[in-house]
Design goal:
globular, mainly beta, six-stranded antiparallel beta barrel, about 130 residues, about 5% helix, 7 strands
Length: about 130
């Protein structure tokens, strides 16, 4: 199986960076990568939580992408579902955990299996 053909989604990656150009150092989010092939899988969809003040969702999904993609814990991800296969599903906004790397198994005999997996957290007030 070649993981590149398995990636049906794309992701845009935003990261907190420091702005040291002014006398007071500040942090802001900056887009560092865009349209990176990926796939959401092993969905942990949970029912909506109803509270007296607001309803919220807490979803836990996994994302797979190539080893060469720089995703760090805390990055904000905008995942465009179905973007690589011409479909338009609802976009997902989530935050990344530290990636788990899976290099090519068995000495590169079965090409195309190397990837990284990132656990995602999606928390939204609805």
């Amino acid at each position: 199986m070649n993981f590149d053909a398995w990636y049906t989604d794309t992701v845009d990656i935003w990261r907190v960076v420091q702005d040291e150009t002014k006398p007071l150092i500040s942090n802001h989010r900056e887009q560092v990568l865009t349209d990176i092939p990926c796939r959401i899988y092993r969905s942990g969809k949970k029912a909506i939580q109803m509270q007296p003040t607001a309803a919220n969702t807490n979803q836990e999904d996994s994302l797979a992408c190539g080893l060469d993609i720089d995703i760090q814990a805390g990055d904000e991800l905008y995942i465009h579902r179905g973007a690589r296969i011409g479909k338009k599903f609802a976009d997902i906004r989530a935050f990344a955990a530290a990636p788990n790397y899976y290099p090519e198994p068995v000495g590169n005999i079965m090409g195309g299996l190397a990837h990284q997996e990132i656990q995602l957290l999606q928390q939204e007030r609805v």
